[in-house]
Specification:
This protein is of the alpha+beta class and about 750 residues long. It is built from 19 helices and 29 strands. Helix 8 runs antiparallel to helix 15, helix 17 crosses helix 18 and helix 18 runs antiparallel to helix 19.
Length: about 750
């Protein structure tokens, strides 16, 4: 921040771009034509002025005429059928053709509605339809298969950039991720060797203004094949029905903002394409494609890229979440320990700082302080006591929220400069504002170098006449900015952990409610999170999977005679993979719900439970010897869930056995002063000792997806969850190649 800068009489920067009406440019890019139609007659109300080139008729000949003057009756009927669908865009692209002299010209038609007006866009079909299929689906299948094996977000992003470059042939393809402040960073890149790398560079939010981001959120793909195009005007300017310019928000031909054209010129690119990446219905990033010469991408290939963008949205978002998943689980475990320590200590603050893990571990801080009833207790590296007192006073006067966090404290509280080495970053939760009771965490300064693609602070240039001219940045060379007085950023899971601790403290100290009531509150919050997860999993994840699954089936049914055996095999593989992913989601949903279903505890005869399971599996155990050495006992448990434990263990014993004479033994062991220990033993393939813990992790399989009958790898995880809900434990003993025994116990649950 330059405090000595000379102020201008008014603010001029690229945020003024947010006011540009880019959704109603009044023109289109000239590689196609656009028609605005009135239903039901399909009268042409508006049209682009380049129709003679594509349709052989001047716009004046077509305006206010029915579309049937252009297309034959069969095509009009087909269009009406598409318009009668609930989601008309689902029909895209449509195939049209017209006769121009002695030749027939084919078009890809794209339709959508806006305010009751049908908008039809036509682009010349440059691909032979018989070849389009073979270019579309094999590329997508290959790309998806590569995305599925990526282990990290970075690896997945790089694969995505490489595959899009291969599909489209652009000179440069980048994966561009938005940050919380809408600045962006290039996290993956594939390019020609002679091009300057942009990987790792940051770009300011003004490069992609707010209304542009809104349109990227509405439309998955945006193509600009030639930056030097001459726009084709839409005539008349205003639509006769709305008396407003035609809204082209969802148009694929929509003309480009002059500022964006200038931006592309400044970058030295002649063509571009952007594919949106969405997460939780919010714009997460873009797949940005650049070319040094004009480049038109046919609609079929764009369709492939759009589908890949949708798959990438699913995969990237999930990969990002999963990378923090284990850390979040760790924080929840620490939170539970801290609640336990607080509850066991007369002074709850002692429980937060004297044990391991402690207050610092909860949010990965280097220092922390608890201010309660006028008493300060600190741990780790913190400011001086008096500095903390002043800081608490400032927080109490200026922060109304339950939690406050910043990685740049001195920007808001200048006095923090003096203790930058211990507290450039701060997170504070309010226990009671009236009593000025707070918990504070501190992080030290981490001097950072941010690599920008050009100076982000120079969006305005001064002309020779002294006037200010709004212009995109002209330089995209590496521009380094050293950032001082900032700490590492706080992660959202750390913020959530701090909020959960606040609630626990209120429950333990201020509300004076019993531990069970507080636990119910925490469980309710956890249940809400699980419900949200279940919704996302069952809707946002499964819906695109079903679409891919269904489309693959349609392709086999509709194009089976065209495809060779290799093509059919690949489509069947895609169907099988999507089915497997849906099975994984279903298993995960089942596992997440186990903890929320109340146990139905009752005296249960384990003999009847096992008999029922064996009856269900009778077709699979005809040639297997079942051994039950003695009658099984009666146990106080949830009959259904315990049956699921036996079912999963017996099913595994059946599957993982390659012996000529197979047997399974089900029994229990009595030991004095210990709970009864049940076991399921087999003479199967066995498990190596190094895998004893890993097999209980969800989706962990020691064999290929199709080997030993397949499966999701969730059975043992579910069994472990059920046993632990009964306050028991489960473990395994095995001799590799000889057999395996799973042991588990139950304890009475109130």
């Amino acid at each position: 921040m330059n405090t000595n800068a000379i102020p201008t009489p008014f603010q001029v920067d690229l945020t003024n771009c947010d006011k540009e009406p880019i959704h109603i440019p009044g023109s289109i890019q000239p590689h196609g034509v656009i028609l605005a139609l009135k239903e039901p007659e399909l009268t042409i109300l508006q049209i682009s002025n380049n129709t003679f080139k594509f349709l052989g008729q001047h716009p004046e000949q077509l305006l206010n005429q029915p579309l049937s003057n252009l297309f034959d009756s069969d095509q009009i009927t087909f269009l009406r059928d598409c318009l009668s669908q609930e989601d008309v865009q689902f029909s895209n692209p449509l195939e049209f053709s017209i006769n121009l002299g002695n030749k027939t010209v084919s078009f890809d038609g794209i339709i959508h509605r806006h305010l009751g007006i049908v908008i039809l866009e036509l682009e010349p079909d440059l691909l032979e339809k018989s070849n389009a299929f073979f270019k579309f689906y094999p590329l997508i299948k290959l790309a998806i298969s590569k995305l599925q094996v990526a282990s990290t977000l970075t690896e997945l992003s790089q694969i995505l950039a490489k595959e899009v470059k291969q599909i489209t042939g652009f000179d440069r393809v980048m994966v561009y991720r938005f940050e919380d402040n809408w600045n962006g960073r290039v996290i993956a890149e594939e390019k020609l060797e002679n091009l300057t790398p942009y990987l790792g560079l940051h770009y300011p939010a003004s490069d992609i203004p707010e209304q542009a981001r809104k349109l990227y959120s509405q439309n998955w793909l945006r193509l600009i094949p030639d930056v030097n195009y001459q726009p084709a005007a839409v005539i008349p300017i205003n639509n006769p029905l709305t008396e407003q310019p035609l809204n082209l928000s969802d148009s694929v031909l929509r003309s480009v903002s002059p500022l964006h054209i200038e931006y592309m010129h400044n970058m030295g690119i002649k063509a571009s394409m952007s594919i949106s990446i969405m997460k939780n219905k919010k714009l997460w990033g873009l797949i940005a494609c650049h070319h040094q010469s004009p480049r038109y991408i046919p609609y079929e290939i764009r369709n492939a890229c759009e589908l890949l963008g949708q798959m990438a949205s699913l995969a990237l978002g999930n990969k990002e979440d999963s990378e923090d998943f284990e850390y979040s689980i760790q924080l929840k475990s620490i939170h539970s320990k801290l609640v336990e320590y607080m509850s066991s200590e007369p002074n709850f603050i002692e429980g937060l700082i004297k044990y391991q893990p402690n207050l610092l571990n909860l949010v990965n801080a280097q220092g922390a302080a608890v201010y309660f009833d006028g008493e300060y207790l600190t741990i780790g590296n913190t400011p001086e006591k008096q500095d903390i007192q002043y800081l608490v006073e400032w927080i109490n006067q200026n922060v109304q929220e339950e939690i406050f966090y910043t990685e740049w404290l001195s920007k808001l509280y200048p006095e923090a400069v003096k203790f930058r080495d211990v507290a450039s970053g701060l997170m504070a939760v309010s226990i009671s504002k009236s009593q000025k009771n707070y918990v504070l965490w501190f992080r030290p300064e981490v001097v950072q170098t941010v690599d920008w693609g050009g100076n982000p602070n120079k969006p305005v240039e001064v002309k020779d006449n002294g006037k200010l001219h709004l212009s995109p940045r002209k330089s995209f060379e590496l521009w380094k900015e050293t950032v001082w007085l900032k700490s590492l950023a706080w992660k959202s899971c750390e913020v959530n952990a701090a909020l959960e601790l606040r609630n626990a403290i209120i429950g333990v100290v201020l509300r004076k409610v019993d531990e069970l009531a507080q636990l119910n509150i925490e469980l309710e919050r956890s249940n809400n999170e699980l419900d949200a997860f279940a919704y996302i999993a069952s809707h946002d994840l499964k819906e695109p999977l079903r679409g891919i699954h269904n489309y693959s089936n349609f392709l086999i049914e509709d194009y089976g005679e065209i495809l060779n055996e290799e093509g059919k095999s690949k489509l069947k593989t895609l169907i099988r993979l999507t089915q497997r992913m849906e099975d994984l989601i279903d298993s995960l949903l089942h596992f997440s719900r186990l903890g929320r279903v109340d146990l139905s505890m009752q005296p249960t005869d384990i003999n009847s439970v096992v008999r029922r399971i064996l009856d269900l599996l009778s077709a699979r155990i005809e040639e297997i010897e079942i051994r039950i050495p003695r009658p099984l006992p009666i146990v106080y448990c949830d009959r259904i869930q315990v049956g699921e434990v036996f079912n999963n263990l017996i099913t595994n014993a059946i599957k993982y056995n390659d012996k000529a004479e197979k047997w399974i033994e089900i029994g229990y062991i009595d030991k004095p002063h210990q709970p009864q220990t049940f076991y399921v033993r087999d003479n199967g393939i066995g498990i190596r000792e190094k895998h004893f813990e890993a097999i209980f992790r969800i989706f962990k399989r020691l064999h290929g997806p199709s080997k030993y009958g397949g499966g999701t790898g969730a059975g043992l995880t579910i069994a472990k969850k059920i046993v632990e809900r009964h306050r028991g434990k489960i473990w395994v003993e095995s001799n590799y190649g000889e057999g395996t025994t799973f042991y588990f116990t139950f304890e009475e649950v109130d």
